[in-house]
Amino acid sequence: MPMQTQDYEQDPAVVQRVAAGDVEAFAILVKRYAGPLSHYLSHRVEDKHTADDLSQDVFLRAFRSLSAGNFAGASSLKTWLFTIANNILVDHYRHRARRPKLTDHTQTLHTADTSTDPARLTERADQALYARQLIAALPEQQQQVVTMKLFGQLSFAEIAEVLGCPVATARSRMRYGLLKIHETLATESQPEAIS
User: Fold this and answer.
1) Which of 49, 84, 108, 163 is the most exposed place for a label (fewest CB within 10 A)?
2) Cβ pair 44, 89 in contact under 8 A
């Protein structure tokens, strides 16, 4: 569920409380941003456990920085957290010296469907895995934008700030990523020619 505008407006006051040593205030920020960050990270790494670990790293770095009064507020807290997440991802893959690989875990995309029917759950898991494969096939810069937009719930302005690029570039990467996915889907749905 997208955050309300008033949630963002409360961030500076909550940040001040964290800087003053209020740990409970930090829990407010974790609750507010854990969902979008977790969804973004889970679509950028190989498994849910790694995503959970990286998410904890984001919040640990954020807490240390906020507690030390190092957040200047030059950007929104949300884009600052996603910048930390993006840097952690770069470190993660640099350390592993490999690109993200796709695994067969069955984390599903957000849907309103709460069915407990095994056939429906299997179908949803297959669809989610296929969606992950389509995104994983994109160039890295397009993957970043698509996952931030779809799973991190960031606006194009926020994505541009996190990635340090113009808003038009973020929009363009999203457009080309979606076009590539569309082309892949169109190619796969065409019947094979009979020889």
Assistant:
1) 49
2) yes
DSSP letter at 3 equals P
Find all residues with CB under 8 Å of 126, minimum gap 6, and list them: none
Model pTM score: 0.71
Q: Rounded to an integer, what distance in angstroms lies between the CA atom of residue 183 and that of residue 195? A: 23
Look up tokens 């829990």; give the residue: 27
Per-residue DSSP letter, 190: S
Residue-averaged pLDDT of the chain: 82
Q: For the segment 15-62, what is each residue's pLDDT rounded down to a tens digit?
A: 999 999 899 999 999 999 999 999 999 989 878 899 999 999 999 999
Task: Report helix angle 140-150 to 156-163, nearest 10.
Answer: 140
Neighbours of 81 (CB within 10 A): 25
DSSP 104-115: ---PPPP-S---
**What are the start-end ranges of the H helices in the chain?**
5-19, 23-42, 48-67, 77-96, 118-136, 140-150, 156-163, 167-189
SS3 16: helix
Tokens coding 179: 């076009």
Q: What is the rounded distance in angstroms from the CA atom of residue 128 to the CA atom of residue 153?
A: 18
Give the separation between CA 76 and CA 32, rounded to whole angstroms.
Answer: 13
Q: Determine the Cα–Cα distance for residues 151 and 144; give it in Å rounded to an integer.
A: 10
